[in-house]
Amino acid sequence: MISFSEVSKRYPNGFEALRNVSFTVETGEMALINGHSGAGKTTLLRLIAAIERSTTGSVIVNGQDVGRLNDAAVPFLRRNFGLVFQDQKLLFDRSVFENVLLPLQISGFESKAAVRRVRAALDKVGLLNKEKARPITLSGGEQQRLCIARAIVSRPSILIADEPTSNLDMEYAKDIMAIFKSFHQVGVTVLISTHDVELLGGTPQRILTLSHGELTG
Ligand SMILES: Nc1ncnc2c1ncn2[C@@H]1O[C@H](COP(=O)(O)OP(=O)(O)OP(=O)(O)O)[C@@H](O)[C@H]1O
């Protein structure tokens, strides 16, 4: 479960990016964070992953108060997460396969099991036939799917994606949303930010709307 209680975030320059935000996303729920550019969507997701800390209020993830975690505990918190953020670059000098393998290597995974997991993750996002390719040779939509494969290879219980469909045409964007829905269907908690209202059309998912740092719906 992810729970925000009267959370505000003021950046060091004094700008208040979130104001008094409270909501709960239950375990296994899928929620979309919607709002205009600058509304605070990225900030909200960064607080959950302890990339930023709230100024006031509490952010609770799986019973842990994220804002109070010491730095040494943050990597343990992040083991629960699959993160798809814009600033996480692909490694263009490594193959598709190696890009997805890397998080498992870092966490010391046994190599045979790691290979199986990488292939399963690539299969899930429809990139198994591109495992030897370099990311630079992939389309924008394929690169986004590769980022998702890298995020889910560790089988996280919470998947957080910041504008994963930005810069993609509608068809690719719908494919990507379908991938996220498939994780939700197997019990993963999914939080996705988007300013793309078209994508939300007809989706039964919960939508949290931010406007100028405040939750308005
Ligand atoms: N490190 C920072 N220091 C100061 N202000 C920041 C910082 N990061 C973000 N902001 C400001 O906080 C506000 C919210 O930014 P945020 O990136 O959370 O919005 P967003 O809804 O994700 O926007 P977009 O859809 O354009 O990505 C913006 O006005 C932004 O300029």
TrEMBL record:
<dbReference type="GO" id="GO:0022857">
    <property type="term" value="F:transmembrane transporter activity"/>
</dbReference>
<keyword id="KW-0813">Transport</keyword>
<dbReference type="InterPro" id="IPR003439">
    <property type="entry name" value="ABC_transporter-like_ATP-bd"/>
</dbReference>
<keyword id="KW-0132">Cell division</keyword>
<dbReference type="GO" id="GO:0005886">
    <property type="term" value="C:plasma membrane"/>
</dbReference>
<keyword id="KW-0547">Nucleotide-binding</keyword>
<keyword id="KW-0131">Cell cycle</keyword>
<keyword id="KW-0067">ATP-binding</keyword>
<dbReference type="GO" id="GO:0051301">
    <property type="term" value="P:cell division"/>
</dbReference>
<keyword id="KW-0472">Membrane</keyword>
<dbReference type="InterPro" id="IPR005286">
    <property type="entry name" value="Cell_div_FtsE"/>
</dbReference>
<dbReference type="GO" id="GO:0006865">
    <property type="term" value="P:amino acid transport"/>
</dbReference>
<comment type="similarity">
    <text>Belongs to the ABC transporter superfamily.</text>
</comment>
<dbReference type="InterPro" id="IPR003593">
    <property type="entry name" value="AAA+_ATPase"/>
</dbReference>
<keyword id="KW-0029">Amino-acid transport</keyword>
<comment type="subunit">
    <text>Homodimer. Forms a membrane-associated complex with FtsX.</text>
</comment>
<dbReference type="Pfam" id="PF00005">
    <property type="entry name" value="ABC_tran"/>
</dbReference>
<dbReference type="GO" id="GO:0016887">
    <property type="term" value="F:ATP hydrolysis activity"/>
</dbReference>
<keyword id="KW-1003">Cell membrane</keyword>
<dbReference type="InterPro" id="IPR027417">
    <property type="entry name" value="P-loop_NTPase"/>
</dbReference>
<protein>
    <recommendedName>
        <fullName>Cell division ATP-binding protein FtsE</fullName>
    </recommendedName>
</protein>
<dbReference type="InterPro" id="IPR015854">
    <property type="entry name" value="ABC_transpr_LolD-like"/>
</dbReference>
<keyword id="KW-1278">Translocase</keyword>
<feature type="domain" description="ABC transporter">
    <location>
        <begin position="2"/>
        <end position="216"/>
    </location>
</feature>
<dbReference type="InterPro" id="IPR017871">
    <property type="entry name" value="ABC_transporter-like_CS"/>
</dbReference>
<dbReference type="GO" id="GO:0005524">
    <property type="term" value="F:ATP binding"/>
</dbReference>
<comment type="function">
    <text>Part of the ABC transporter FtsEX involved in cellular division. Important for assembly or stability of the septal ring.</text>
</comment>
